[in-house]
Design goal:
Length: 166
């Protein structure tokens, strides 16, 4: 079969199919690239405001609570709910009013004391609460600021391990 492109040109049907297939692949590639770009824009991208030395493992805090060694340690929830025993609930730090609650509570704590923040709503890379709260802690000059290392969430990394809860 012969397909006419112009009066002076003729192209075989198979050549036309190959050309259309190549064009279709380019269009599909551009569509995939476009949606990938949109996904990158919509995904939260954060930079960490803490150092690895400022992370506290859950087992360490659990042991301190169970051994009653909390005299110089203040544990503050900056997520949806205060689950950890002896922790203060400042509320989700993504909300300005809760950040203000945290700031007011911190005024009662000397700047050389150990202050441990935790959220536990989700993994760090998705959490909207830990960065504003930890940044506030650092901006206020707390020398022994810690972030509880909760890789997945509070249920898996604290409750399911049998650590002390309220």
């Amino acid at each position: 079969m012969i397909v006419s492109k112009t009066p002076n040109q003729t192209t075989s049907f198979s050549t036309v199919c190959v050309i259309n297939f190549i064009r279709m692949k380019k269009v599909i590639f551009l569509i995939i690239l476009f949606f990938g770009f949109l996904n990158g824009i919509s995904a939260q991208s954060f930079t960490d405001v803490w150092t690895p030395k400022q992370l506290m493992e859950t087992k360490v805090l659990s042991d301190k609570i169970q051994q009653n060694k909390m005299k110089n340690t203040f544990v503050i929830n900056i997520g949806p709910d205060a689950v950890i025993k002896k922790s203060f609930n400042a509320g989700a730090a993504k909300d300005a009013k809760n950040l203000e609650t945290l700031k007011q509570y911190l005024k009662k704590i000397p700047k050389d004391k150990e202050v441990v923040l935790y959220c536990g709503c989700c993994p760090f890379d998705k959490c909207p609460n830990i960065r504003p709260a930890f940044k506030l802690l650092m901006d206020l000059g707390y020398k022994n600021a810690k972030l509880l290392n909760i890789p997945k969430n509070i249920k898996i990394d604290w409750i399911d391990k049998g650590y002390p809860i309220n």
